[in-house]
Structures are given as structure tokens and as C-alpha cells.
């Protein structure tokens, strides 16, 4: 099935990220059938304040999120945003690890995250893949990538505590380790960026915890087209009442 046909079906039948080829991760805190109290994913989290020890990856790839240590588990906050539940990380010791390699060194990838900063500042990332390639910086919800060994900030924005944002990053191979970051609102930037490596974490980067409410994370192991990107961000903006 072609990309245009898949997008047409999503418009007619309702959005499903799995119809966009290359989906590598789908974490959805609002799906009560995928959020668990334990890392083994045996007991569902349903009550406000329940610990969240596991989240099933809805992509079907198996990149499930887990927190094996009880003290590291974030909390479920019921009906926190647009009538939907979120996972709240305290910024101190809460962290979840993603199984597998997720983006796994791909030259081209796309990541879209819905979250709100609830406290703190600095490079404390609600989301990171591998060794900071890329990470989402808490203080501004800017994407932070490594360019020839040096951190580079993209899409910097002023974010007030509690403001919900949809943040997307698309990289496309453009020669030997050259990637283009595409941002619909701000145009394009061309830079030599390092590929995404390793697995990933929710609410921690380089040892720093992030104080945040996390709604949804989607990742593809290729560069989305602009039409695909817009379909995803429209869906997430409407679903979460984000900007």
C-alpha cells in the first residue's frame, strides 16, 4: 500500500501511526491497556498516583518502557490533560528504559513527542535515544543533537511550566553523516549530525532527571515526508490539546 493511500485511509477511518511505514516506537500514556504498575507488565496501572513500572510499545516492535527499581517509577496521573492520563516524572530519580535499540544508528529517523515541563531547568531531557542522539532539552523543549562531537540546540522555544508542546525532529541522510533537520514552522537547517545510537530513556539524559508530564512518544526509523509529519502533529495536537 502506498503512502498516499495509507494517509487517505487514516483521514477516513481515524489516525493510526502504524499505517505510516517504519514505526519503531509508540508510547501512549493515555492507553490504559498499555500502562502497568510493574516492569513485568502484569498489573495494569489505573488509579491516580499508581506507580508506572512498564509501558507497552504499541508499535509492535517491542521497545517497551520499563523501570525495574520501584523507587525509579513515575506516577500515573489520571485525566491530567484533555481528559487523558499522563505519566509524571519527578525530576529526581524517576526514569524508564526503552528495550532494544529503537533508532539503532539509523542515518534517517523521525521522533515526535508530546510532553509538558513541570519543573527544573537545563539539559534534563524528557526523551533521549542512545548517547544523546537526539535528546529533548527540558528547559526549552528544544531538540539537542551532537554535531561533530559538539552539542547543538535546535528549535529553541520559551516554555512556561505546565505548557504542553508537540515537538518533532526529522533527519534525512544528506551525504556522509550529513543530516537535515526539518521543522515545519521554522524552515530547514543543514548540519553534520551524529546518528542515533543505542536504545533510549524517558526522563533522563546524561545522568540528569527531567521533571515532566509525558503524554505520547512516536519514532520512525526513516525520515517522514512533510505530509506524513503534518498528519501526525495534527493528530497529536488535537488529541492532547497541545501547541
Describe the structure.
This protein is mainly β and 243 residues long. The chain is built from two helices and 19 strands. The chain has helices spanning 3-13, 226-240; strands at 23-28, 35-36, 54-55, 65-66, 75-81, 84-90, 96-98, 109-119, 127-128, 135-136, 143-147, 150-154, 164-171, 179-183, 187-191, 200-202, 204-205, 208-209, 211-220. Strands 2-3-4-7-16-9-10-11-12 form a nine-stranded antiparallel sheet, with no helix packed on it. Strands 1, 5, 6, 8, 13 and 19 form a six-stranded antiparallel sheet that branches. It starts with a helix and ends with a helix. The relative contact order is 0.21.
Note the main attributes of this structure.
single chain, 243 residues, mainly beta, nine-stranded antiparallel beta sheet, 2 helices, 19 strands, 11% helix, globular
- Spatially, the strands of the biggest sheet line up as 2-3-4-7-16-9-10-11-12
- How many alpha or pi helices? 2
- Overall average pLDDT: 76
State the distance separating the first and last CA atoms.
31 Å
Question: Gyration radius, to the nearest Å?
Answer: 17 Å
Short description:
The protein has 243 residues and is mostly beta strands.
Present the secondary structure layout:
Layout: H1 3-13, E1 23-28, E2 35-36, E3 54-55, E4 65-66, E5 75-81, E6 84-90, E7 96-98, E8 109-119, E9 127-128, E10 135-136, E11 143-147, E12 150-154, E13 164-171, E14 179-183, E15 187-191, E16 200-202, E17 204-205, E18 208-209, E19 211-220, H2 226-240
Antiparallel strand pairs: 1-19, 2-3, 3-4, 4-7, 5-6, 6-19, 7-16, 8-13, 8-19, 9-10, 9-16, 10-11, 11-12, 14-15, 17-18
Amino acid at each position: 500500500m502506498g503512502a498516499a493511500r495509507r494517509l487517505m485511509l487514516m483521514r477516513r477511518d481515524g489516525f493510526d501511526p502504524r499505517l505510516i511505514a517504519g514505526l519503531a516506537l509508540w508510547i501512549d500514556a493515555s492507553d490504559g491497556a498499555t500502562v502497568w504498575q510493574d516492569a513485568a507488565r502484569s498489573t495494569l496501572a489505573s488509579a491516580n498516583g499508581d506507580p508506572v513500572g512498564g509501558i507497552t510499545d504499541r508499535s509492535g516492535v517491542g521497545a517497551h518502557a520499563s523501570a525495574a527499581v520501584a523507587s525509579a517509577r513515575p506516577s500515573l496521573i489520571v485525566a491530567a490533560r484533555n481528559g487523558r492520563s499522563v505519566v509524571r516524572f519527578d525530576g529526581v530519580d524517576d526514569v524508564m528504559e526503552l528495550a532494544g535499540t529503537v533508532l539503532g544508528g539509523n542515518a534517517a529517523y523521525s521522533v515526535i513527542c508530546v510532553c509538558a515541563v513541570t519543573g527544573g531547568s537545563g539539559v534534563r531531557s524528557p526523551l533521549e535515544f542512545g548517547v544523546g542522539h537526539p535528546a529533548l532539552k527540558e528547559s526549552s523543549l528544544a531538540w539537542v543533537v551532537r554535531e561533530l562531537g559538539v552539542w547543538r540546540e535546535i528549535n529553541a522555544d520559551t516554555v512556561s511550566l505546565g505548557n504542553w508542546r508537540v515537538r518533532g525532529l526529522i533527519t534525512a541522510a544528506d551525504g556522509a553523516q550529513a543530516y537535515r533537520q526539518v521543522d515545519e514552522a521554522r524552515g530547514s537547517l543543514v548540519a553534520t549530525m551524529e546518528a542515533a545510537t543505542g536504545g533510549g530513556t524517558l526522563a533522563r539524559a546524561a545522568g540528569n532527571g527531567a521533571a515532566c508530564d509525558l503524554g505520547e512518544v512516536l519514532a520512525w526509523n526513516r525520515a517522514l515526508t512533510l505530509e506524513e509529519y503534518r498528519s501526525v502533529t495534527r493528530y497529536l495536537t488535537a488529541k492532547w490539546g497541545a501547541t
